[in-house]
Amino acid sequence: MTASRLQHVVSSGVVLMVAALVAWISFTQEPADAFLFPRLIAIFFISLAGWNFVRAVTGLAKVGEGLDGPGFVNILPGLLVMIIHVFFAAKTLGFYLASTIAFLIIFTIYDPAPLSTRNAWIRRIIITALFMAVMHALFALVLKVQTPRGIWF
Questions:
Q1: What is the distance between the alpha carbons of residues 86 and 11, in angstroms, rounded to a whole number?
Q2: Same domain, 74 and 103
Q3: Which of 97, 120, 128, 132 gives 20 to 30 Å between its CA and that of 82?
């Protein structure tokens, strides 16, 4: 088994385990009505993850070169911000505030515009506000999903 294929099998296996955990959590929580949307997403998520894992194990998936050291270093800042958001900030600060901060940080890290220009910061802030408005409209207004509430929201 090549290194890139092994990397695909391992990563798809981890995603499948996360999908199974999300499905288990969503189907064991009460009240059931509050978890309707997470249950639908969990079913879809575990189906796709299972399909991807089977394709990886059987060799049907066409994998690329895999993730090398410099590629991992490039995505590491975004991964760290995401981990902090998921395991700390969303519960402490609240989903929307933590998501706004996380989105702005990740956008700033990967935006090629210089940090010293005023117009780049205005653009980052406007795009972040628009993104969060869409997130709020989708989750709170359309889907009526309960998001983690923190000290402010």
A1: 19
A2: yes
A3: 120
Share of the chain above pLDDT 90, in %: 29
pLDDT tens digits, 38-96: 788 889 999 999 999 999 888 887 766 666 778 778 888 888 888 888 778 878 888 88
Do 5 and 54 sit in the same domain of this protein? yes
Query: Do 11 and 86 share a structural domain?
Result: no
pTM of the model: 0.61
State residue 30 phi and psi, 5-degree precision. -125, 150
Report the alpha-carbon distance of residue 117 to residue 36 in Å, rounded.
45
Tell me which residue has tokens 């902090």. Answer: 84
Domain boundary among 49, 66, 83: 66
Rounded CA-CA distance 153/31 in Å is: 21
Range of the domain at 101: 67-153
Domain co-membership, 126 together with 113: yes
